[in-house]
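Appendix C reproduces, verbatim, an entry submitted by the partner laboratory led by Prof. M.T., so that reviewers can inspect both the input and the predicted structure.
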Amino acid sequence: MNISPTNHQKKIHDYFEGIAREYKTYRRKFNYYYNDLVKYCNYFIHPDNSVLEIGCSTGQTISKIKGSYKAGIDFSETMITEAKINCPSVDFYVMNAEDLTIDRKFDVIIISNVIGYLENVQDVLLQIRKVSHPQTRIIITHYNYLWESILHFAEFIGLKKKSPQQNWLSRKDITNLLMLANFDTYRESKRMLIPVNIPLLSWLFNKYIAQLPLIKHLCLSQFVFARPVLLPQENNQESQYSTTIVIPARNEAGNIENAILRLPQFGSKQEIIFVEGNSTDNTWEVIQQIKEKYSHSHNIVITQQEGKGKGDAVRKGYSIATGDILMILDADLTVPPEELPKFYNAIATGKAEFINGSRLVYPMDDNAMQFLNTLGNKFFGAAFSWLIQQPIKDSLCGTKVMFRKDYEKLVQNRSFFGEFDPFGDFDLLFGAYKLNLKIIDLPIRYRERVYGSTNISRFKHGIMLLRMCWFALWKVKFI
């Protein structure tokens, strides 16, 4: 159905047509700003992703974005003509965002600084559902409305091209519009205090000071990350996934059989992998006996790790896992095996792609966790929440769940963070963040250990965890 453009749409069209005509001047003036925008988006985009930019203008953003296939759309034929000249490796289309006719689904869809110019944002977001699959990621960039007066002043003195009036949408407005279009917002972030390149000063303020609490709310660029909410007709996978439960075990001989007896059945099928790690008791012998004893009823795989630490044991177990969903169950059973169906249901029904257990919500057994350990866990939970911009109450809970296909991508990117995490918690959480997965906490009851003693040294390992948080600042926060 053809609809005549409104006066507002005509003004928007003329504005962007002017940008296309002055492409070289515009690119030179705002190159610093767009380079930072591209850098941040690329942090979360995998080279194998297909990427679509809505409102691509002359292609200055999509041309620098990573991806195996890239496309851009805009309503301006002048801009698309300029984009095709400047970026021949990208497929460009003259098309209205309110009526998308591209016949493919994209892994990542970017809406960069045009959401305030759209006549009806919800209509555009509903159209985006047509080119999204369940794992698609939406990245929306927009200006902080606190900068409205500054940008108007820049237009007044000729530093910025005068633009038509736009919708100054708040973060809550955008989140609400995404929700109405069946998208789930899972992360928000802010960047850039100085949008022009002033040597040293811009680097200092934009890289470091802009990330500090309170000050970050003054940043110009705001980012919203969202993913499709599975509709009822799409959400029928609850019983179709197979599961691998990896159980690292060191000096846990008395808990091995209970791990099998207490484990509920869920999913299409289960694989249980015991990874024994340098025990000084008879844990390995007991694991072998349990595998034989329950071979008729359980698919049990056993192995021994060559290295040391729980992180190494988890990596060994995951490397031989065959299930669609990967789970960790500590052999001390302080996280009850009976809780695992909750983790399965949360990930299988699309609530998130990474489920993190949280021991710090419900009251614990009296001797389940010592006071200093509780303080340490609360501190690291708060530190992680700040680092990865998603709420993590208990970063060190042993039970973590993700899809194997996502873990395989995490392994490909592991060199980005390194392999020095002896526990595995940081490795998985940072990796999930870099993969742009939605992470949620799942509260569990934390029980007192009934056999053996803890393998954690609170001071030695606490210092090690602090070093990893410090390292993560430069890999996650100050980028």
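Residues 23-43 form the longest helix (21 residues). Additional entries are available on request from the coordinating office.
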